[in-house]
Amino acid sequence: SGVLFRPDLVGTGAPEFDAGATGVFWGLRQEHDAIDMAGAVMEGVAFVLRKNCEHIARNGVELKSIVATGGGTKSAVWCQLQADITGLPVSVPVEKEAACLGAAMIAAVSHGRFESFGAAAEECVAMQKHYSPNPSAHLNKKYRRFCALYAASLAIQDIT
Asked: What is the 3 state secondary structure string of the chain?
């Protein structure tokens, strides 16, 4: 659908860090339903991920892939959408709760079980699934609109 969602319900995080930003559904029509809105929410979050990836790349860091963690990794649709929107492969590790695994790896390195974090990652982190990006002119157009929607919202906020 043509529905866009700006997920700025508590302002924006990176790369804008705009506490005054607000969320919005844009492009809603009578024919849209809850599925269209849920899809727009997923796209909106993935568009923010793309914005951050582009910001990181502009600052000289070469991004080769994304490692997805947490509950969202249970959804193949969600992971594929992230790959399609960012243009980067998305990998899902066997252990999806990265914070717990990371804490255990820090403890293991600190205790001398591994000589480095790299060595700990080599032994403890394994990928389970991989999603390759499928370029889409439609998603690229929606991303440009998503970015323009933020700029338009700034202009609206400045109206007195």
From this structure: CCCEEECCECECCCCCCCCCCCCEEECCCCCCCHHHHHHHHHHHHHHHHHHHHHHHHHCCCCCCCEECCCHHHHCHHHHHHHHHHHCCCEEEECCCCHHHHHHHHHHHHHCCCCCCHHHHHHHHCCEEEEECCCCCHHHHHHHHHHHHHHHHHHHHHCCC
Q: How confident is the model at residue 155 (pLDDT cuts 50, 70, 90)?
A: confident
CA distance 7 to 152: 15
Check: CB of residue 150 under 8 Å from CB of residue 6: yes
Condensed to tens digits (0 to 9), the pLDDT of residues 98-120 reads 889 999 999 999 999 999 999 99
The pair of three-digit structure tokens given for residue 124, joined into one six-digit string:
């403890």
| The pair of three-digit structure tokens given for residue 155, joined into one six-digit string | 């202009």
Report pLDDT for 102: 93
- Residue 26 C-alpha from the chain's centroid: 20
Rg (C-alpha) for the chain, rounded Å, is 19
